[in-house]
Request: fold
Amino acid sequence: MAFNTETMTINMGPQHPSTHGVLQLILELDGEVVQKATPHIGFLHRGTEKLSEHRTYHQVIPLTDRLDYLAPMSNNLGYVLAVEKLLGITDQIPERAKVIRVMMAELTRLKSHLVWLACHALDIGAMTVFLYCFRERENIMDFYEKISGARMTSNYFRVGGLSADLPEGIEAEIRAFAESMHGHVETYEGLLTGNKIWQKRTQGVGIISKEAAIDIGLTGASLRASGVDWDLRRDNPYSGYEDYDFVVPVREECDTWARYHVRLEEMRQSARLVLQALDKLQGLQGAPILADCPQICLPPKQDVVNTIEGLIHHFKIITEGFKPEPGEIYQGVEAPKGELGYYLVSDGSPRPLRMKIRPPSFVNLQALPQMVEGKMLADVVAVIGTLDIVLGEIDR
Amino acid sequence: MSDQAIVEKLKAKFSSAVLNVVEHRGETTVTVEKERIVEICTFMRDECGYNLLTDLCGVDYLGQAPRFMVVYNMYNIDAKQRFRLKVPVEEQDAKVDTVSGVWGTANWHERECWDLMGISFNNHPDLRRILMPADWEGHPLRKDYPVQGPDREPYQGRVS
Reply:
């Protein structure tokens, strides 16, 4: 007697805890094996690129906070670097601003990786590590709040520098935290790496070869876990990364296990980078945090409230903005999820003619079908976690 | 290989198809004929080592002819270099051959370009809307598409 087999189509998301936001997957199943996976995105589309064409360059910065909302300062950094390149003032950014940017970008990487580890582990059955990760993340949120005034939508960087200097005493707090981070990562490793269940859920799951990964456009930790030794911070340095000492972890296994190890090592390296930035800051106390470009940078708030010249200056920049020469540039940064790029076109007006965001999660998600098809349904959850996607920047 | 060398190489191979070369802030942008884009992209990947297509997008220069540009930002992972190609696209014939056969990653980028900019891609394996709902009318990133939406009163306050 022949068995009559038919596939079943099920709907996963957009309201599903393990899809990390509003991601919908249409899965065609043969028993427990995924035959076909079709991602549907766009539920969180807010038209960031369209809105940016109707705002001055400075007014776009808050929009970028809301792309990858787990790593707002990385988005800010990519955008301000792109505008500075468009203006041709990259070499005028003061050293102190550059060091603080690197420090915040690395804290942001830690923050993003902590959420990745917490949710990834929770999704595939390890609950404890979630609580530990969120405890550490809370520290970084506190730094965010003290430095920028907001826990998530930081809006801290400015074209030409920073919106404000660091509050007094924060360096010591950040140093204590960064020094403790190494031990915390050991804790996470102790909870997971030797755990038989964790190994079974990650080893050999979600394999993507080096060639396939490059073809589909994977970037960041996912690409480095497939054996490609490439990190924008080291290979196309920006914001002074060439002056720091850090290791780019690379693994050859191409699976979820390898991506887990790459990201854990990145967390250790980020903590190192934060400490190095703090050392540099000691020699830069009181140094300027904004470029000397009165046509572009806002004057200090002190001048705005106390002098008429400062007020006029502020008013002019806020109402008129600044006008970059016509031209186009692309700036990519190593965001926690991969390469975050901004392609800016200026027509000489105070608003971008076009701002195309190249979100790493959007491109990385594209690899999901080939990583799960032919595999078990339960591995879909592991693969979503390991790709480390954030729907805010996928949908923009 | 410097950008200059790549431009020379492109000119030697596709002399008639290279329309324009612009350098701005140290980045080179080469405009090529859209009829030969697949051929040129294959050449860039195989002969010049640009194995990663970082980004693909459309730009709307409303009021100019041709109205659109499709922009290909590519990256050479071995040499750590970027390069940019552009193809002009007429409004009446807003179609370009797909490069998803050259770089698999172009698939979603081209869907997004079709969805938001209304430039369609010949021979694309799966050209559907991606960010907007499937039954949406119009292409929101076009310059003649109002920022407040198609059927709403224009915003009365400051839009800047």
Remarks:
- The longest strand of chain B covers residues 52-60.
- The beta strands of chain B are 18-24, 27-32, 52-60, 68-76, 81-89, 95-97, 120-122.
- Chain B has a mean pLDDT of 87.
- The helical segments of chain B are 3-13, 37-48, 106-117.
